[in-house]
Amino acid sequence: MTHPPSSMASAVSDAAKLRLLRDIAEIMRSPGKVRDALENVLERLRRTLPVVRGSVTLISPATGEIRIEASCGLKETERLRGRYARGEGVTGRVIQTGQAMCVADVSGEPLFLNRTGSRDLQHEAISFLCVPIQIDGQSVGALSVDRRMAPQPVLLEEMDLLHIIATLLGHAAFEGQRFMDDTNSSASPLAEMFHTSSPVMRHVLEQIEHVAHAGTTVFLQGESGTGKEVAARAIHAASPRASGPFISLNCAALPENLIESEMFGHERGAYTGASSLRKGRFELADGGTLFLDEVGELSLPVQAKLLRVLQERCFERLGGTHTLHVDVRIIAATNRDLESMVEAGTYRRDLFYRLNVFPIRLPALRERKDDILPLASRFGLRFGRANGREDVRLSLAVMDMLQRYDWPGNVRELENVMERAVLLMGREDIILPQHLPLSLHGEYRAAQADAPEHCCILPAHAATLPQRVAELERSCIVEALTASGGHMGKAAKALGLTERIMGLRMRKYHLRYQSFRMPAAAEESDKADA
Q: What is the CATH number of domain 6-177?
């Protein structure tokens, strides 16, 4: 393959490199958000080198997933698609091995995945440079750039420069890891939904991207708890109406005599108790999006009135005569089979067709098993931080149990299970099997009985059996000592051990009973010892 003109391929001057390094050092010293600093560095890099795109990928401390946390030259949706496992692709390989990689021509490199979908590999002449970002010899992420194709000596010279820059970014990248899984961040609903590695959810996200920018009515279908309102908010957030209101109405939460007033509003004196004018949800959503949840619960008379609004985009308040016109995008959702209801005569066929313009089916959690552990980790971190616990982790046994369970309540059930587990968790900040509901224990035992030869569905390299047993044993001892206030005898009795065995186990795990004593009790113990 021919190389580009020498003006593009030539190396950057030493003076330009020094200015770049000085500017990066200044950026890293400045106060502000870590992501903003990293993106400023990438932009500065792009202005100095013939860089087309750049990114900083970090390892999630909660899930171990590698994802792009800062970028330049990438759209938001492209950045969100940049997710890898250790050893996967060029980026995953660099982070796993700690060895930089220089790909002179990405179109001929099988390891190059183009996961973001941002490159036209058939028409772009691109070289890819990737170096690890390390702290104390441990990789926390990687710095990578797409640059216009150049001769190998030029690329190697720039690799040396990237190594120096990656060193300057090390502490900022390490700090950035702490906030990667903070679900209370300002991430959009669409960004939250992109936290998935499931092919079926990827298809849902592609549908959302296609329909978001249109004004088309969207019909979300799926079991209860699959995230239909999250999907509706994602569509609104990615649409031109994002600056307008997002109004939600649960059609199953109100009695029939109130649902019409909630939808269309009422005039003063329209009925007993209507002491003032009230705007309905359609009116409040003017210029934005109206999300009608559980539309399968509407009665036939209300269905007829809703149909008119969908057709003509106008209505009258209850008790009023003035016709109101609104500009509203409708997103409807249900967990019922409306087609069967249409055939049974309990749902209007014409309304069903009005709603079913762009149907999107939200998959059940059991259909996206790969997402269970990342979701559980994120929920655990979120609820942990809300309760002053900064480093909530899942034990290996709990990981196995969560993946085996069928989750009839879907994501909502998983969220509730994790909130309960965090509240029951001991001082070790690790969630153990005893912190999970009995329903998950029954499922786990049944799965083991049915398939004893496959008693664990975690990756084989996750941990050895002795490591798992030790993790559980240590955590149980810590919980018992905490509950007994550091009293070894009581803790041993609670665990069914003799004090001698208890002492041996404590010595094995470097535990001291004094660490579990309350201040007053510890002081009394010290006096007694004296």
A: 3.30.450.40
| Angstrom distance (rounded) from CA 314 to CA 327 | 9
Q: Are strands 83-84 and 138-148 parallel, antiparallel or unpaired?
A: unpaired
Kindly state the tokens that stand for 150: 């150049």
Helix (H, G, I), strand (E, B) or coil at 103: strand
Average confidence (pLDDT) over 119-142: 88
Band of residue 260 on the pLDDT scale cut at 50, 70, 90: confident
Share of the chain above pLDDT 90, in %: 33
Q: The pTM is what?
A: 0.56
**Rg of the Cα trace of the chain?**
29
329-334 and 289-293 strand pairing: parallel
Q: What is d(CA 98, CA 501) in angstroms, rounded to the nearest whole number?
A: 43
Contact partners, residue 10, CB within 8 Å, separation at least 6: 154
| Identity of residue 46 | R
User: Coil, strand, or helix at residue 130?
Assistant: strand
Two structure tokens written together for 103: 């790909």
Q: How many Cα atoms within 13 Å fall on the side-chain side of residue 336?
A: 17
Q: How far is CA 395 from CA 35, 322, 376, 451, 505, in A?
A: 30, 62, 12, 21, 19
CA–CA separation, 385 vs 520, rounded Å?
A: 28
Whether 206 contacts 81, CB under 8 Å = no
| Digit-coded pLDDT (tens) for 467-512 | 667 777 877 888 788 788 888 888 899 889 898 888 888 888 788 8
CATH class name, domain 463-530: mainly alpha
Task: Look at the domain 189-361 and name its fold.
Answer: Rossmann fold (3.40.50)
Task: Give 196 or 218, the one with higher predicted confidence.
Answer: 218
What SS3 state is found at 430?
Answer: strand
Query: Which residues fall within 8 angstroms of residue 478, CB to CB, at 6 or more apart?
Result: 426, 427, 428, 511, 516
Q: Has residue 456 got a pLDDT over 50?
A: no
For residue 228, the model assigns a pLDDT of 93
Q: How far apart are CA 91 and CA 82, in angstroms?
A: 10
Contacts of 175 (CB under 8 A, 6+ apart): 34
pLDDT in tens, 361-403: 999 999 988 788 888 888 888 888 888 887 788 887 788 788 8
CATH T-level topology, domain 369-460: Helicase, Ruva Protein; domain 3 (1.10.8)
Q: Are 129 and 147 in contact (CB under 8 A)?
A: yes
Extents of the domains making up the chain? 6-177, 189-361, 369-460, 463-530
Those residues with Cβ within 8 angstroms of residue 475's Cβ, 6 or more apart along the chain or in another chain: 395, 426, 428, 430, 432
The band of 528, judged by pLDDT with boundaries at 50, 70 and 90, is: very low
